[in-house]
Structures are given as C-alpha cells and as structure tokens.
Amino acid sequence: SKGRGPNVPCVCTPDMMEAIHRRSAIADVVRRAAECGGFTVKLQPVWSESERRFVAAEALCRLDDDELGSIPPDEFIPVAEQIGVISDVTRFMLNRACAFIRTYRDAHPDSTFRGVSVNFSAVEFIQDDLAESVLAVVERHGIPASCLRVEVTESAIIANPDAVRAFMEDMHAHGVRFYLDDFGTGYSNISMMLELPFDVVKLDKSILWSATEDEHLTEFFGLLTAGFGAMGSQILSEGVETQEQRGFLNECGCSLMQGYLFSRPLSPDEAAAVIAASEEE
Ligand code: C2E
Ligand code: CA
Ligand code: CA
After folding, report:
1. Which ligand is nearest to the CA of 150?
2. Which of 2, 77, 107, 129 has the fewest CB atoms found within 10 Å of its own CB?
3. What is the ipTM of this complex?
C-alpha cells in the first residue's frame, strides 16, 4: 500500500491486521497482569462417582481486561509462553491453589478432599530449579505436598522428556501427584506414559464426545480404564455435559468426572461451598 516503500509489499488482509493487532494488545495485557498478579483463578470441582462427592478441583486461569473483556486461556496462555511470562502465571496459580487447599483443610479438618491440580506448560520444564521453587510454595502455605497435583500434557513430555522425567521423579518423591492432561489428543507414546508416575490420566473431552453408544467403544473404554488401573493410574474424563455421557462412563468403570454437568469452574469461595455441600450429603 501507499507509503510503505517499494520493498515492503503489503500482503496483509484486514483480517490478518486485526489478528496481529489483537495479539499485541493481549501481549500488553498479559505482561501487565504478570507484573502485578492481575489474573484470577477459577476452580472446577472433580466428581467421584464411586464416592458420590467432589474429591478434587482443577485450577483454571482467567484474565479480564477493561477494553478486551474476558480473554480465553486458549488465547492468552500461548501468548504468555511466547513473551516469556508463563512462569509468572504458574506461580500465581500455584499460590492460589495452595492457599485454597490450606483454607479448605483448615475449615474442614475431617474432609476427604484430596487436592487441587495446576496446569504446567511445556516451556516451563527447562527451568533448572523448577522443583525447588514449586516445593517452596507448597511449604510456605503449610500444606501436605500430596494435596498439590501437577497437570502435564503429552506434548510437554514429548518436547522435553528428560527434563519432565527428572522433575516428576523429584516432585513425586516429595509426595506431589501428577495428572496426564489431554490424553488422546496427541501422539500417544504409551510406553513412555506408562513409565512415568501418573496418578490420574485425564481423557480429553473430544474422546468422550466422539464416543457413542457403540458397544465396541464402551468395551474399549472399559479396557483402557482397567489397563491404566493395572498400571496404578485412575482415569478421569473431562467435558462431561450430559447424563448420557455420565451413564456411558459408569458402564466403562470410569469414576472420576469433570464437566459442566457437575460444575462449571467457580470462584474459590463458591468452589469451597459446593465441595463442602457434597461432603455433607
Ligand atoms: P484444559 O487443561 O484441558 O482445561 C479444561 C478446559 O475445559 C477448561 O477450559 C474448562 O473450563 C473446560 N471445561 C470443563 N468442563 C467442560 C465441559 O463440560 N464442557 C466444555 N465444553 N468445556 C469444559 P478453560 O478454562 O477455557 O481452559 C482452556 C485451556 O487453557 C486449558 O485446557 C489449559 O490448557 C489452558 N489453561 C487454563 N488455565 C491454565 C493455567 O493456569 N496454566 C496453563 N499452562 N494453562 C492453562
Ligand atoms: Ca488441564
Ligand atoms: Ca485437558
């Protein structure tokens, strides 16, 4: 276009310009939030069908801006990774998760609530002192390390197998539990997965949603659940939205469920109330 000089042809469509503009606006918001802890945390309770109560929760990050409104994590987390502030996001989430665990356990000393999981990104595992810094947060909040759960995706492991393995072994020795996130979406390297100490394997919601009443699929789900069970991991299904899906999972012997059918992600106060109410019934 005009005024760019002959060597800089403009190949940007208005849509592309718009996307570039939005990305840089998000980068500014993320950078600011990282500096001052401007994120918020939501907790989505995890239902145990066998225990008929909420037994855990996943911490999910939220970012709201006056101008851009609520920015979805699928959009701002990749930006936080690219601009190098993802460790600030994780530290913020870890602190909130540990504070929740502390408050909940203090208020409900007889509770069977097991803990909160925090999502870790692939790029974080290159940090040398990651295990120490995470354990320091746990210690500062005075909670048992076994109440903290770290969610790792297959793609994070594949990007950095040695670093992830070392981190997991170190943390596991201190009692921290691990969830394998988004199972079934990437290139599953089953043998590698099975070597790592995952307490819970989280089946991606796309897997559940593609499952029908197909007899073979039910059988396959059952075998998958039993197989992971034999290896010492439980299966948790994400994205449970209907009673039909819940029934399907019951048939497969998959007891841990997370989804809008049970609860949306909630503020920490709301989550505490919902979890406590489920324990009283
Ligand atoms: P994820 O780890 O797979 O988290 C589950 C996502 O599914 C959440 O979306 C949750 O709100 C949504 N969800 C839960 N139940 C249902 C359901 O029944 N139906 C549907 N349609 N969705 C359901 P959310 O909060 O938008 O997060 C999206 C992704 O952003 C997460 O996927 C995770 O990859 C990433 N993310 C969120 N918070 C963090 C964080 O603190 N750190 C990192 N590294 N990533 C995060
Ligand atoms: Ca997750
Ligand atoms: Ca997931």
Report:
1. 2
2. 2
3. 0.98
